[in-house]
């Protein structure tokens, strides 16, 4: 695919048919590099889109000795959009208790419909307080006035609820304890939400795929 756009941190390639796109990190091929002093010096000068682009390609630097300190800097200085981009690195590269504290704080400062990356990262920490925290997020999502709104593509509030259920099940929740929430998603007005609910949660709820897609 031809190169469509190149930034300081990535290259975007797009097929002429307009349907296929791939983005490659320049940290992966070594054409870009970054150290903690460079991050600290450059951060104030970069636009928000540049910071997000950096953080979306950031994981390729994980073998550097200064990578944990770079994560800490970004979590101190970044916006909720930036936190979403590095949330998994927080969960996997920092000590469990520190990661939980940083991510739970970020969660509260992130808009309800945009919390999925942070919730996923919290689940990855497997901190003992995470199930209760994700359970509260699920209740907030289901209480949102937008939870049952139809959408021509996908209702992000409802999709976030589906992912919360997936994480809770992975963390040991009993399927029957979450079945009421699953049934509300299986009957969602948006067809894409119904389909994704069946695809994501179907293994845990044998009735779900037939309910959404029909027999066979």
Structural account:
With 216 residues, this protein is mainly alpha-helical. It has 2 domains: 1-94, no CATH class; 128-216, no CATH class. The protein has helices spanning 26-29, 36-42, 48-56, 67-77, 80-93, 96-108, 116-125, 130-143, 156-170, 179-186, 191-201, 208-213, and strands spanning 3-6, 10-14, 21-25. A 3-stranded antiparallel beta sheet has the order 1-2-3. Helix 6 packs antiparallel against helix 7, helix 7 (116-125) packs parallel to helix 9 and helix 9 packs parallel to helix 11 (191-201).
Please write out the topology:
Elements: E1 3-6, E2 10-14, E3 21-25, H1 26-29, H2 36-42, H3 48-56, H4 67-77, H5 80-93, H6 96-108, H7 116-125, H8 130-143, H9 156-170, H10 179-186, H11 191-201, H12 208-213
Antiparallel strand pairs: 1-2, 2-3
Helix pairs in contact: 3-5, 4-5, 5-6, 5-7, 6-7, 7-9, 8-9, 9-11
List keywords for this structure.
single chain; 216 residues; mainly alpha; 2 domains; 3-stranded antiparallel sheet; 3 strands; globular
Concise structural overview:
56% of the residues lie in helices and 6% in strands. It contains twelve helices and three strands; from the N terminus they run E-E-E-H-H-H-H-H-H-H-H-H-H-H-H.
Task: Specify the helix fraction band.
Answer: 55-70%
Low-confidence stretches: none
The topology string of helices and strands comes to EEEHHHHHHHHHHHH
Total number of helical segments?
12
């Amino acid at each position: 695919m031809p190169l469509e756009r190149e930034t300081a941190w990535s290259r975007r390639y797009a097929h002429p048919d307009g349907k296929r796109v791939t983005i490659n990190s320049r940290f992966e091929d070594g054409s870009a590099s970054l150290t903690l002093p460079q991050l600290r010096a450059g951060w104030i000068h970069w636009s928000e889109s540049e910071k997000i682009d950096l953080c979306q390609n950031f994981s390729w630097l994980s073998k550097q000795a200064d990578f944990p300190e770079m994560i800490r800097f970004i979590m101190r200085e970044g916006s909720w959009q930036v936190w979403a981009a590095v949330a998994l690195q927080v969960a996997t590269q920092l000590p469990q208790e520190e990661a939980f504290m940083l991510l739970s704080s970020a969660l509260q400062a992130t808009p309800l419909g945009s919390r999925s990356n942070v919730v996923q990262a919290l689940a990855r920490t497997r901190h003992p307080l995470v199930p209760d925290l994700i359970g509260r997020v699920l209740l907030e999502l289901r209480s949102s006035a937008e939870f049952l709104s139809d959408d021509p593509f996908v209702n992000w509030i409802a999709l976030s609820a589906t992912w919360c259920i997936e994480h809770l099940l992975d963390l040991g929740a009993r399927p029957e304890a979450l079945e009421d929430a699953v049934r509300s998603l299986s009957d969602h007005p948006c067809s894409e939400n119904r389909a994704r609910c069946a695809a994501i949660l179907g293994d845990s709820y044998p009735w779900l795929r037939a309910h959404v897609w029909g027999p066979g």
